[in-house]
Amino acid sequence: MHALITGAGGFVGGHLCTYLQSETDWDLTGTVFDPAASQVTESSRLQLRRADLRDPFATSSLLEETRPDIIFHLAAQSSVPTSFSDPWETLENNLRSQLNLLEAVRQSSREVTFLVIGSNEEYGAPKPEELPQTERSPLRPNNPYAVSKVGQDYMGLQYHLTYGLSVVRVRPFNHTGPGQSTRFVVPAFASQIARIEAGLQEPVMNVGNLSTARDFTDVRDIVRAYHLAVSKGEPGEVYNVASEHPQAIETLLDTLLEYANVEIRVEKDPERYRPADVPVVYGSAEKFRSQTGWEPEIPFEETLRDTLAYWREQVSSD
Q1: What are the CA-CA distances from residue 241 to residues 12, 83, 185, 291, 301 (Å)?
Q2: For the CA atoms of the chain, what is the radius of gyration?
């Protein structure tokens, strides 16, 4: 088996490459947009290729050369705040890249299992009676990133219905862990704590809205879910991947502060607030659990400790 992982140099892609090399005997090709920023290195079973998937000719050539049996399409602009500051860049990047990949698969006439990565952001702001969100929940995207993910989601379904492509779709809820960008809440907190402990920042943490709660899963459990999705998922179907337990952002911060070895003052920063935010979000993974047997295995406290340890190491090596 040969798997292509787009976005292999990113946060989730790096963890997926590590997992697949450990748990399968597949040959792997990973695409990276910026090799200098890649979080993964080549090995005897993992070849990295620089690729701009927005280019249809480059994408088609990539598939002709690699001839994958499975495609994990992780490459995307994944930051909600960034999508507000530059909506078209997010829409163009996320939609065009997937379209080029699906077209290349269709034109190749090869049997390829294609994993489309959606997002719980597609559901938008749930009403209290709509929780937990299921695959039948209405889609009400309230940011440009969410709109791009709805487009990717339904594009995958359309290629399955129209051309018979073996497309499996997932809608992961929030996931975090070692290696994630500081554009996201857990590493934003953890990196500040690490810098404060090292004397590189005043003992003050700048934070955004702490009153929300989100459904967090460790990235290492998420990549295990992606492997199960391509192995046991039903083509044409969509699956939530979620812990099913909302974690309050304020409690998350308090837990990280308990792990700190210095006293830290917390200050709210209006610049860190989103134009549109949702109080509480959590999902149901019952459909995916029934199909694959997947369950999250890593406790959230362990995720927080590991993320803080990662940032302490990063700060000490700078």
Answers
A1: 14, 23, 19, 12, 19
A2: 19
Q: Which residues contact 256 (CB under 8 A, 6 or more apart)?
A: 186, 189, 190, 193, 304, 308
What angle in degrees, to the nearest 10, is found between the helix axes of 185-197 and 249-259?
Answer: 30
Who contacts 145 (Cβ-Cβ below 8 Å, separation ≥6)?
Answer: 77, 78, 79, 80, 82, 83, 90, 94, 119, 121
Q: Tell me the mean pLDDT in the region 203-222.
A: 93
Nearest 5°: phi and psi at 228?
A: -65, -35
261-274 burial: b if 16+ Cβ within 10 Å, else e? eeebeeeeeeeeee
Q: How far apart (Å, rounded) are the C-alpha atoms in residues 254 and 233?
A: 38
CA–CA separation, 78 and 83 (whole Å): 8
CA–CA separation, 170 and 187 (whole Å): 24
Q: What's the average model confidence in pLDDT over 57-63? A: 97
CA dihedral 10, 12, 13, 18 (to 10 degrees): 120
- Mean pLDDT taken over the chain: 95
CA 110 to chain centre: 27
What's the rounded Cα separation, in Å, for the pair 13 and 32?
9
Which tokens sit at 271?
């610049």
Q: Quick: pLDDT tens for 256-312.
A: 999 999 999 999 887 766 665 678 999 999 999 999 999 999 999 999 999 999 999
Q: Give the Cα separation of 306 and 259 in Å (integer).
A: 11
pLDDT score at 276: 54
Longest dimension (CA), the chain: 61
Quote the pTM value. 0.95
User: What's the CA gap between 100 and 4, in Å, rounded?
Assistant: 14
Structure tokens at 201: 């920042």
The whole-number average pLDDT for the span 30-45 is 85
pLDDT in tens, 279-294: 899 999 999 999 999 9
